[in-house]
Design brief:
Number of helices: 13
Bound molecules: fe (ii) ion
Strand order of the largest sheet: 1-9-6-4-2-3
Radius of gyration: 19 Å
Shape: globular
Helix content: 40-55%
CATH superfamily of the largest domain: Dehydroquinate synthase-like - alpha domain
Largest sheet: 6 strands, parallel
CATH architecture of the largest domain: Up-down Bundle
Order of helices and strands: EHEEHEHEEEEEHHHHHHHHHH
Structural class: alpha/beta
CATH class of the largest domain: Mainly Alpha
Number of strands: 9
């Protein structure tokens, strides 16, 4: 039995971002001192007119070309520490931007470096007040109690799993997802589907997480087996599914797909969501019904998956992929039991990667 914490308050609806002031601490409404961390996708300034910017507010654009790293989080934190500490942090963007906002918020209050907190329940005190604003749906970063970062020194992709990592407030504004490119919309949306199938297939279960997962999966099926996954109605629904999927995973664990996808990220710099889809497509043996359903969804949306990613790699690269996968003991044991290494031998893992 575990004590469950979820996001405190959220605002949902078309145009919700315009009302962001309602969710910010009263003390900042006149003085400012808020930091907006915005995905570089919006570098053209198109979001700024929607934000209640005050003189002391700061806007930083976050480069999300690659997955977040501990070094990147440390650098942004150092930049913010050099000035008066902000009273609120808003992360506006995809999973990477939101994860960086969560990590920076925790670091500002707890001190030290991002790598010190990669693991479970290592964050000691609440971070700076933080608000999450997804501009693409699926990662569940807006609702989860983690923020995933790559730590290249340790060859590790791991989050700060902590109740303090949860956002204090979340804004779900489907207007923001209107300009998402089609493939990215699909791959990112499938992250929710994958969180939920992994959670439901695991040994570490939680009745509330199961309920969140079942509902999120029902919504994913409705959207991705339909003719127009990006309609206004479905964009709003996918925001809810993403939120539910993130909440589910906050109370359970992922399974085999995320660890293999983390391996792809570490070694081949593959992005999280497309990586998950590539991995799922190679997992017939472990998730047969889900793989079949995923392929039907892909067909319905006419989205092609990158192929041949792991063909003809050097032995050292397969070894690196294996190491970066097998290190994720908790989710692998959740999927296969404590004895997972006897199933996921080097040869087996390499064979699965060769299918991608
Ligand atoms: Fe994910």
């Amino acid at each position: 039995m575990r004590l469950t914490k979820t996001v405190g308050e959220y605002l949902l609806g078309f145009g919700a971002l315009q009302q962001v002031d309602r969710l910010l601490p009263k003390s900042t409404r006149q003085s400012g001192e808020r930091v907006y961390l915005i995905d570089h996708f919006f570098y053209d300034g198109s979001l700024l007119p929607r934000l209640p910017l005050l003189k002391k507010d700061r806007v930083l654009y976050i480069d999300t070309t690659d997955e977040p790293t501990t070094e990147q989080v440390d650098a942004i934190t150092a930049q913010l520490r050099s000035d008066a500490p902000p009273q609120a942090i808003l992360g506006i963007g995809g999973g990477s931007t939101m994860d960086i906002a969560k990590a920076v918020s925790n670091l500002l209050s707890n001190g030290g470096s991002a790598a010190d907190y990669q693991g479970w329940d290592l964050v000691k005190v609440p971070g700076v007040f933080k608000v999450g604003v997804p501009t693409i749906s699926g990662t569940g970063a807006e609702a989860s109690r983690t923020c995933v970062m790559m730590n290249h020194a340790e060859n590790l992709k791991l989050g700060m799993n902590s109740d303090h990592t949860l956002f204090d407030r979340v804004i779900l504004d489907p207007e923001l997802t209107a300009t998402v490119p089609r493939n990215q919309y699909f791959f990112t949306g499938m992250d929710t589907y994958i969180h939920c199938i992994e959670s439901l297939a695991g040994r570490y279960r939680h009745a509330l997480a199961d309920a969140f997962s079942h509902q999120a999966l029902a919504v994913c099926r409705e959207i991705f087996l339909s003719g127009n996954m990006q309609s206004d109605e479905y964009r709003e629904k996918l925001m809810i599914a993403s939120f539910l999927g993130g909440s589910a995973i906050g109370n359970s664990l992922v399974g085999l797909i995320h660890p293999f996808s983390a391996g792809l990220s570490m070694v081949l710099h593959t992005h999280h969501c497309v990586g998950n889809c590539i991995v799922l497509n190679a997992m017939d043996e472990f998730y047969p019904r889900e793989v079949e359903e995923f392929r039907r969804m892909q067909e319905s949306q006419r989205v092609a998956l990158p192929r041949g990613l792991c063909q003809g790699l050097a032995d050292s690269q397969y070894r690196a992929l294996y190491e970066a996968t097998i290190i994720h003991e908790k989710p692998l044991a959740n999927a296969l039991g404590d004895d997972f290494r006897s199933i996921l031998t080097f040869d087996k893992v390499a064979e699965i990667f060769r299918r991608m």
